[in-house]
From TrEMBL:
It comes from Ascobolus immersus RN42. Binds 1 Mg(2+) ion per monomer. GO terms for cellular component: cytoplasm; nucleus. This is Uridylate kinase. The keyword Magnesium does not apply. Catalyzes the phosphorylation of pyrimidine nucleoside monophosphates at the expense of ATP. Plays an important role in de novo pyrimidine nucleotide biosynthesis. Has preference for UMP and dUMP as phosphate acceptors, but can also use CMP, dCMP and AMP. Consists of three domains, a large central CORE domain and two small peripheral domains, NMPbind and LID, which undergo movements during catalysis. The LID domain closes over the site of phosphoryl transfer upon ATP binding. Assembling and dissambling the active center during each catalytic cycle provides an effective means to prevent ATP hydrolysis.
Length: 309
């Protein structure tokens, strides 16, 4: 150790000592010196030649800068897209306001009455009387749906079957199309008559969106006949009808579901038309003839008023 220190001292103090060939230099000096250069067999990766002497973190800063600019560009792009979408939506809306859909049938030439009421209120029964006395064409939405369900090859057969059994409202596109087709077919087959064609649209609209669509695209109604009947009366009538009707929904489970749908989904339609003063409300719990005597006189009065005859 003593020797090593002496040799080290001698080397540091002797100029040109480092230039001696390594074989002549004592190995102990090399290992002992604190400024020894890295060993050649070191597994450490060699430092890059161009390594910056400065501690300034260039690479992370560049990465942050690039990420920031990318995010900014993305945000600007998103904003532009959003602005374009809003502009397009506004344009579409203004076009809609200018080009309001024209109803397929002219309400000045065609009389439409909606006949509404809970299941079993007596809509079909009273419609038969109105057909006889006023020359209406009777179109029951439920009957049209049942016929479509039975039609061989119908793509809606299964869907209608399920909706009817569950007492739910069939998607309006199906029902509106069936009604419009039936009205068209009836008008095409019609012989000239002295009063405008009259339609009783029975059991429709059963939902507010159906009402809006039909009024805008098919034909606005003149007024609504609403058969108002308590649930217990309707339930007894439907269970009685179920003995012979063969209908998949004239059973107590389906009846309860239909009542729920009527209260939650169909009553708002009646309320909507009532606000416009377009509802003729009739007590439907009375016997058939009693109900009809009111309906007959009121419908006669309203037709006169609305058809201007
Ligand atoms: P809706 O078409 O509203 O479902 P319907 O006209 O088919 O109702 O009538 C349901 C059942 O009640 C039928 O069996 C019908 O004969 C009977 N019905 C209809 N109106 C009356 C009434 N005012 N009094 C007693 N029974 C009625
Ligand atoms: O009017 P009706 O009692 O014949 O209707 C039977 C069923 O047909 C309803 O319970 C409903 O499932 C379906 N329906 C419908 N939309 C309508 C009329 C009837 O989904 N506008
Ligand atoms: Mg009916």
């Amino acid at each position: 150790m003593q020797l090593a220190r002496q040799l080290l001292k001698a080397r540091i103090s002797a100029p040109g000592a480092a230039l001696k060939p390594s074989c002549l230099r004592p190995t102990t000096i090399r290992t002992a010196t604190p400024t020894a250069s890295p060993r050649l067999y070191s597994t450490k990766p060699k430092e890059p030649l161009h390594k910056s002497k400065s501690n300034f973190p260039v690479v992370p800063l560049v990465a942050i800068f690039l990420a920031g600019s990318g995010a900014f560009a993305y945000m600007v792009n998103q904003r532009k897209e959003l602005e374009q979408k809003v502009k397009a939506a506004k344009e579409a809306e203004s076009i809609k306001q200018v080009v309001k859909p024209t109803p397929f049938f002219n309400p000045k030439e065609v009389t439409v009455l909606y006949v509404l009421g809970g299941p079993g209120a007596g809509k079909g029964t009273q419609c038969a009387n109105l057909v006889r006395d006023f020359g209406f064409v009777h179109l029951s939405a439920g009957d049209l749906l049942r016929a479509e369900q039975e039609r061989p090859g119908s793509q809606f057969g299964e869907l209608i079957k399920t909706y009817i059994r569950e007492g739910k409202i069939v998607p309006m596109e199906v029902t509106v199309a069936l009604l419009q087709n039936a009205m068209k077919a009836s008008l095409e087959a019609r012989k000239p008559a002295d009063h405008p064609p009259r339609f009783l649209i029975d059991g429709f609209p059963r939902q507010v969106d159906q009402a809006i669509k039909f009024e805008e695209e098919v034909c606005p109604c003149k007024f609504v006949v609403f058969f108002d009947c308590p649930e217990d009366v309707m339930e007894a009538r439907l269970l009685n009808r179920g003995k012979t009707s063969g209908r998949s929904d004239d059973n107590i489970e389906s009846i309860k579901k239909r009542f729920k749908t009527f209260v939650n989904t169909s009553m708002p339609v009646i309320d909507m038309f009532a606000k416009d003063g377009k509802v003729l409300s009739v007590n439907a719990a009375a016997p058939v003839e009693t109900v009809y005597s009111t309906v007959k006189s009121e419908v006669a009065r309203l037709l006169k008023e609305k058809e201007g005859k």
